[in-house]
Design goal:
Length: about 425
């Protein structure tokens, strides 16, 4: 796949730092430190290089992730913040430049996001046979592969995204849906094999492309990877069993109402949700693809005269879902999207308008899934249990202070945001 072409996400999906990586772990550009050094009579010793290359140097340990907030437990009677998670399936940078665009949109609106990377986007077309998908022949992928330029562009965006506090998850590899070897038919062992390959392609992109002198991704992917969304939302049961065994912390492959999340099979169930669908009597899943299917069917470029209206429907539906939570139970709003220009790019416009509208509001936190599970794990379990008693759009009848007036439990032991176990 040439970098000047769009990265495919399936046949309509059935249903900067290169020279300064040593300072990336500090979250600063180092200018203040250099100025202080210049003021001293004796030059200070050079700071120790915090970069530790991993494997072939495709990834590296560079210290704690910058801009990752420390989760805080709710205080006595405190109203919970309104969390909103924007996430992207199969994240890669192609000629549309949507990855880089939404990185910029996030920075401008005080937001961080989760990017679910497809591993084959870091595997060159000429090396496609290295991918051995479960229940398929070697080199098979329903979303294609990439070329050197496309890989370099994607790696650059992944690097910058992580340094800005965003999360890099996985959307696995070949994106197989439906019958005949689709992910819904995969065993637990199949899922573990697919996950291992997705991680391998991220950890060896330099070897596979020959770009040995390029800057590494500034994270250890074995530690960075804690969650995923399955292709077409299929195969969730066996995936979750595999993910639990592999130490994942959450899954976002399901469908739920706008209520507070709980754990399922030891993972936080951060399913996407049903929100109002303007002009319709039924509710709609918080994903661009589902809005499209209910507007133009399986045609990705429907009637141009309706593009504006369709985007407005998605924007207004997401905003109505947001207001329902913000003024009601404060359940996190989970939104999923693709870097695609379906129906003239109207859904990308809708998502951008939602980000601009909600992420700068008081008491709103637009965060990654990692940041959300860190916060959930830091809370008093009794507080979360109370929050889960609130229905969709239901605010506490006597106010938040009375509703969450119970005494605060002792702070959890261990590092903030550490997994609470497999319970």
């Amino acid at each position: 796949m040439a970098a000047t072409h769009r990265i495919a996400t399936g046949t309509v999906i059935a249903a900067v730092c290169a020279a300064s990586l040593a300072g990336c772990g500090s979250g600063a550009d180092g200018t203040g430190e250099r100025a202080r050094d210049q003021e001293k009579a004796k030059p200070a010793p050079a700071p120790k290089n915090v970069v530790r290359l991993i494997g072939d140097g495709s990834t590296a340990y560079t210290g704690a992730q910058p801009h990752l907030p420390r989760p805080e437990r709710l205080k006595h009677g405190e109203k919970p913040p309104q969390f909103v998670v924007f996430s992207w399936d199969g994240a890669g940078e192609d000629s549309q430049k949507l990855f880089s665009h939404f990185r910029k949109v996030a920075k401008e609106n005080n937001a961080t996001m989760t990017y679910f990377l497809s591993g084959v986007y870091l595997l060159p077309e000429g090396k496609r046979d290295l991918y051995r998908p479960p229940q398929h022949s070697p080199g098979r992928s329903d979303i294609g592969f990439n070329d050197r330029e496309g890989i370099a562009d994607t790696v650059k965006q992944l690097r910058l995204a992580w340094l800005e506090g965003n999360e890099i998850g996985t959307h696995f590899n070949g994106h197989f849906c439906g019958s005949g070897g689709g992910v819904g038919e995969w065993s637990v062992a199949d899922w573990k094999d697919e996950i291992a390959q997705a991680k391998h392609f991220v950890k060896t992109w330099k070897t596979h492309t020959g770009m040995k002198d390029s800057a590494p991704l500034p994270f250890d992917y074995d530690k960075e990877l804690i969650g995923a969304r399955t292709p077409c939302l299929e195969g969730r049961e066996n995936f979750m069993k595999a993910a639990r065994d592999l130490g994942f912390r959450y899954d976002t492959s399901g469908v739920d109402n706008q209520v507070w999340p709980k754990k399922k099979q030891g993972l936080w169930d951060l399913s996407m949700q049903l929100v109002p669908f303007p002009g319709h009597s039924f509710e709609q899943l918080t994903m661009d693809y589902n809005f499209m299917v209910n507007q133009s069917g399986t045609t990705t470029q429907g009637d141009p005269a309706k593009h504006g209206m369709w985007g407005d429907q998605m924007r207004d539906g997401l905003l109505q879902g947001f207001e329902r939570a913000y003024e009601g139970n404060r359940a996190p709003l989970i939104i999923g999207n693709h870097f695609e220009s379906w129906n003239g790019g109207t859904y990308m416009r809708a998502v951008e308008e939602v980000i601009e509208e909600v992420c700068t509001k008081s008491e709103v936190r637009c965060v990654s899934f990692r940041q959300l599970v860190d916060w959930l794990d830091a809370q008093d379990p009794e507080t979360l249990a109370k929050l889960r008693t609130l229905g969709v759009g239901e605010a506490p009848k006597k106010g938040w202070e009375a509703f969450l007036a119970g005494g605060s439990a002792p702070a959890p032991k261990g590092a903030p945001g550490a997994p609470a176990g497999k319970g």
